[in-house]
Amino acid sequence: MDSFIDAIIYTISFLAMLSILVFVHEWGHFIIARLNGVRVDVFSIGFGREVWGRTDKKGTRWKICYIPLGGYVKFFGDASAASTPEIGLDAMSAEDRKVSFYHKRLHQRAAIVFAGPIANFIFAILILATFFYLYGQVNTPAVVSQVVQGSAAEEAGLQQGDVIVAVDGSEIKRFNDLRIEVLYSSGESIDVDVLRHDKIISLVLTPRLTKIERDGEPVLDDSGKQLELYQIGIQNSEEVVILEHNIGSALWAGVLETRVILIQSLRGIRQMIVGTRSVKELSGPIGIAKIAGESAKRGIDFWIRVMALVSISLGMINLFPIPLLDGGHLLFYGFEAVLGRKLSEKTQEFGFRIGLVFILGLMMLATFNDILKFSW
């Protein structure tokens, strides 16, 4: 019975989160398209048969469809939900060209495409800024309160009272910043700068893969195995500082936090590409549904915070230069800017097919990883 209830919570929380983020993303495309005089034929949440819909005064069909796994905005001149151009665009009348997406100037089309991912980033910034403004920002100083005997930290010469100020040239402001750097090291050596007795000392540490325990009991991952993470073997001060923010500083803190999350996400993807990180860590719909469900069980505040992280990931992924994604369209516009002309419809169609195969393959890999990791 508990598993059945969990499945319902996971499904509802995942679909609710996805629908909100898709709406935000497509709204970015929509609003910039409208500002540039493009006619929007359809604004859809989901795919397939329409469940509900209405047409506004400007001719846009707003609808919700049966398959709630995404959404799209269809501009005038699009042949499909993937924004592939219709054949025979040159035969359009002068009146139709004024409202056609494909007859807008290059910078206008690029702005419309770019607006979707930007909307996701802005949405995440606003969520984080709201929490920082209402509750403050937790800041645990990166002070070494204890060094584990025989650990990488002890071997490198870290001492109690040291303040970690930088890792591989990146400034460390909080203990969590250090934790992230160590987790993403994939076991490679890191250069650590510490403040000791008013002097900066440089040390080299090699994080070790460590089995995680809590209260003497092993912590299990999604597959039921004991969780292993890279650690250097230090404990931080239990002192927690709550930074209070006004509206302006909260917004700026939201921007900085989004930047950190984005950089670390890109770093993780780069490590997967070069092989220093396993592609088994890649998560798909099942994994995201589990995260959404677990966060919902912890409360609406936690669920909203997780939604901010997923929004950043959605914006980032959509900027990858893969045809069918926003980044693929921007890639085509880059070629157009260099060549001084649009790529042929056949070339674009070929690119979209390659992109579709790549995305489907990636989705299959991520879903397969989820199935292996998920504790059925």
Notes on the protein architecture:
The chain is an alpha+beta fold and 376 residues long. It is 50% helix and 20% strand. The protein folds into 2 domains: 2-135 and 307-373, no CATH class; 137-243, PDZ domain (Pdz3 Domain). It has a 4-stranded antiparallel beta sheet. Strands 1-2 form a two-stranded antiparallel sheet. It has a two-stranded antiparallel sheet with strand order 3-14. A hairpin with a 2-residue loop joins strand 7 and strand 8. It is elongated, with a radius of gyration of 24 Å. The two termini are 14 Å apart. The mean pLDDT is 87.
Helix-and-strand structural type: alpha+beta
Q: How many strand elements?
A: 14
Following the backbone from N to C, one meets helices and strands in this order, namely HEEHHEEHEEHEEEEEEEEHHHHH
Figure out the total of helices: 10
Q: Which blocks of ≥5 consecutive residues have pLDDT under 50?
A: none
Globular, elongated, flat, extended or rod-shaped: what is the shape? elongated
Bin the strand percentage: 15-25%
How do you describe this structure in short?
The chain is of the alpha+beta class and 376 residues long. Helices cover 50% and strands 20% of the residues.
